[in-house]
Amino acid sequence: METRELICIGCPMGCQLTIEMNDTEVVSVAGNTCPRGETYAKKEVTNPTRIVTSTVRVEGGEMDMVSVKTREDIPKGKIFDCVHALKNVTVAAPVNIGDVVLRNAAGTGVDIVATRNVGVPNQHGN
Amino acid sequence: MKAYDIMSASETPCLHEWRTANGDHDSCKAASSTESANHDIMSASETPCLHEWRTANGDHDSCEAASSTESANHDIMSASETPCLHEWRTANGDHDSCKAASSTESANYDIVIIGGGPAGLAAAVSAKKNGCESILILERDRELGGILNQCIHNGFGLHTFKEELTGPEYAARFIEQARELGIEYKLNTMVMDISHEKTVTAMNRTDGLFEIQAKAVILAMGCRERSRGALNIPGYRPAGIFSAGTAQRLVNMEGYLPGRKVVILGSGDIGLIMARRMTFEGAKVQVVAELMPFSGGLKRNIVQCLDDYDIPLKLSHTVVDIRGRERVEGVTIAQVDPHGKPIAGTEEEYECDTLLLSCGLIPENELSSGMGIDMNPVTSGPNVNESLETNIEGVFACGNVLHVHDLVDFVSEEATAAGKNAAQYVQTESDRNACAAEKAETNQRNASEQITLNPIDGVRYTVPHTIRIDRMSDTLTVRFRVGNVYKNCYVSAYFNDERVIHKKRPVMAPGEMEDIKLSREKLESFPNLKTITIKVEEA
Q1: Domain FAD/NAD(P)-binding, which positions (chain B) (predicted)?
Q2: Residue B437 and which of B237, B263, B427, B525 are 20 to 30 A apart at CA?
């Protein structure tokens, strides 16, 4: 039996989780104060995932950069593949929250979407 | 709505000319009140210029469109509209629309909110929903949303929206609400002064210097980062030393990478977030040094921003030297003793071109102290009562200007309360003015006794600082921070000398805000309640 210690990141509480594992199987989770802790612990020790946030360049916008995120969480091991895939991506203004910036980022099956609006210069009401 | 900020001081002289010419004093009462506020600050040169333009232009059709927009949407108003409007109005003899226009020009608002970040937005939305129709937000940046716009990482809104949003998305939700509610705002506008009588002096490039009279003011200016100068780090002063928030803005909004080999001093949340962000952008973050024996940041940020990328966090360490004349070439980090003094012989050299500072946030209260608000030395924010009202009646504070928060969700919650309280204050004031009998009653209520909150034994401060039971809501959230890391301890509240609340907390840390809830019923039923002492007690 193997024991792993984690800090839950489901909320600011930051519960100290103790996970007992039998090989790759989770036997028990302790220390959590809500069901999210257990879900997080099981996932983190078997298939850890993250939402990745970054920025890409905007052409013809009132700002040069637009912030983006993976629409859902992606495998932790794919974070840098995603970041690299965004390196040469440029989008044209106007950009709206939720617009797809990159489809199926780094083969994760997850799209990368804009998280802010960028209007074109002098166009009011953005 | 956005067009509001192009309303300029040059409007008034034209109106003035028109009025003089027409002798129509009744329909322009509101306008003249604006004028009295603005007249002194106008330069003589403006009037003829605008006048000339107007004569030359004579474009009445487009003016008509503008003026109808104006009456529908109060805040669209530009220098060009007013003179045209006047001509159009005169031509049509339509005095009703004139009224609408003149009320727009009024420099009187029920509530003026200083700052359009998360606190200001939530306060505005709440004030409007609680019946206040006349609200103006003054924002110094080019857009609403405040610091959220540069916080592109996720983790916002778990409490408020029950989903995980990025900063810009969280801001956009509130901006959208404010827009739907038709809340007025001015961007690129710097508030210079607020008088004790709630006259707000502000300036921007289109209006020049102007004054606005408010019935209530909500302070929502946020906070700023502690700078190198305030930290007294020895060494040279080369380029390459940034506060973490400056670096965040450069990377996330302006598209610049401040450097490639980075050392971070301080483990505040922005520093932790920037450790990950700089790593994504190809920089090598070598170490995060923290003076205290614990991190000032949230747990999840330590896990997801440092641990995930194998960035070491050195607790009880600080920067003792910065090298490089033109650009940072390296820093020296040393361990510190329990008093924070560097221990000789523990120095380590780090080669780097960038040093980021994430060493705490300071509420931005120059305006508050300038108007004579009673400040709390621990929070560096105003002392407030249960209504989040300062010692100056009708002046409220919320968000990071009041005390630095860990989560924006709590800022929104607090600001919502402040907005509601300000709206109620404005309502009560107008009722009071309308009815003298009630005035006496309110005065009596003003004299009602205050309960003082007394933070001791590990509790550094509380917000609010005083409570008037008759004004408190059914449940009042008292927020505070602790001064150290406590495990398996209790938070206790003593009513006078009697322990009434005794709540177990598995872990408390200075980086995370704590709260306890006080019920009005309990406070009312306690005889002769003078002081509520809040403290940490060992198990």
Answers
A1: 109-416
A2: B525
